[in-house]
Amino acid sequence: MTQRLYYTDAETLEFDAQVTESTNTSGQPGVVLDRTAFYPSSGGQPFDTGRLGDAQVLDVIDEGDRIVHALSMPIEPGTAVHGVIDAARRRDHMQQHTGQHILSAAFERLFANPTLSFHLGTGSCTIDLAKSLPAADVERAVDEANRVVWEDRPVVVRFASADEARAAGLRKGSQREGELRLVEVTGYDLSACGGTHVARTGSIGVIAVTGTEKVKGGLRVSFVCGRRALDELRLLRDAVAGSLRALSVVPAELPAAIRRLQADGKALRKRAGELQIALAGQEAERLLALATPSEPAPVVAAVMDGWEAGGLRAIASSLIARGPVQVVLATAEQPLSIVVAQSSPTGAAAVDVVARLTARFGGRGGGNRELAQAGGLSESGQVVVDAARRVLEKTGPGTGSREPEAGSPTASG
């Protein structure tokens, strides 16, 4: 059995131990120690990293009675090793996890809204609440949680039987029996938890909610604590400062300036679309002169730089109105849009060609025999247009939209 030093002292960042077993985990050499301060992934909290002797600790796995350390190099059983925890990562996890306890307790105390799950990610953390809440109530919980942080309350770890723990009033019931590890934010929260925590709430610094979203009838709250909150503030500061410089406005004017830009952009796109439709006839004449001779009808295939999907539809409609022709047009910009059209009674149905292209390149589309379109294709416009051209040129009189089978004399690679 591995002695878990982090259970009683999360501030332990260096320790001495002996290798009791060498093993292999997911293709990496690993060891089991008689004692360890490395926290394994558990309860929504990621594992610690650091070093054992000269070996880098790549992962820490909880296997019940023993903890396996995946390493960058093997270490023989019986070897005495000195372990060093990555202090910045450990302290970060301590801040986030203790902050989660306090924030979850605030939501439960103020709104009887329990936390269903917790995740500590590399950028931010989340808690999933049982019920949705308005933004004002979320902010009330954040203010309450930070009040507890700034009161610098002791965070106490103790052990108790399952019956004693239930009698003490856990925030969230535990199904485990036997001895439980309890983490108490003095006078505010009591939880059964095996994670690492700060010794006093003041070490969390601040709890900041960065966003919320409704999930499965509840609310997912994203938050950051301590150093992460400082990093988030710097990121936001730099983004806002850059926006203010670009728009030449003061902070209070930024939202209105962005709304004006959005409105102007929408109006310009609308006007551009109207102009493209007006020019569609002239563009159709130009493209028709460049059509490639083919059976059952000439093929017009092009990537249209600067054109949007509405303009492509207008060009395609103008082309097929001029006589038998097969058309495939694509936008040059991503996300890619295509339009396929044909006016030959024996040519491939436009909707069938689009279905082939979306099956190969992704995206969604539809239409009818004469005209079809699609958007969101994952390749460049030229690649998609070339693929569509091959489909059209393989379709001869009487063949409908069927391509030649692989290996036939007319099939191409």
Task: Outline the structure in words.
By secondary structure, the chain is an alpha+beta fold. The protein folds into 3 domains: 3-85, Elongation Factor Tu (Ef-tu), domain 3; 91-234, Threonyl-trna Synthetase, Chain A, domain 2 (Threonyl-tRNA Synthetase, Chain A, domain 2, 2-Layer Sandwich); 278-394, Diaminopimelate Epimerase, Chain A, domain 1 (Roll). It contains 8 helices and 20 strands. Strand 16, helix 6 (309-320) and strand 17 (326-331) form a beta-alpha-beta unit. Helix 1 (87-111) crosses helix 2 (135-150), helix 5 (254-289) packs parallel to helix 6 (309-320) and helix 7 (350-361) packs across helix 8. The two termini are 62 Å apart.
Descriptors:
alpha+beta, Elongation Factor Tu (Ef-tu), domain 3, Threonyl-tRNA Synthetase, Chain A, domain 2, Diaminopimelate Epimerase, Chain A, domain 1, 3 domains, six-stranded antiparallel beta barrel, five-stranded mixed β-sheet, 35% helix
Q: Helix proportion of residues, in percent? A: 25-40%
Proportion of beta-strand residues: 25-35%
Derived from helix and strand composition plus strand pairing, the structural class reads alpha+beta
Strand order of the largest sheet: 2-3-7-6-5-8
Largest sheet: 6 strands, antiparallel, barrel
CATH structural architecture of the largest domain: 2-Layer Sandwich
Low-confidence parts? 396-413
Mean pLDDT: 90
- The level 1 CATH classification of the largest domain is Alpha Beta
Outline, from the CA principal axes?
A: elongated
End-to-end CA span: 62 Å
Rg over alpha carbons = 32 Å
- Overall number of structural domains: 3
Order of helices and strands: EEEEEEEEHEEHEHEEEEHHEHEEHEEH
Name the CATH homologous superfamily of the largest domain.
Answer: Threonyl-trna Synthetase, Chain A, domain 2
Q: Which fold does the CATH topology of the largest domain refer to?
A: Threonyl-tRNA Synthetase, Chain A, domain 2
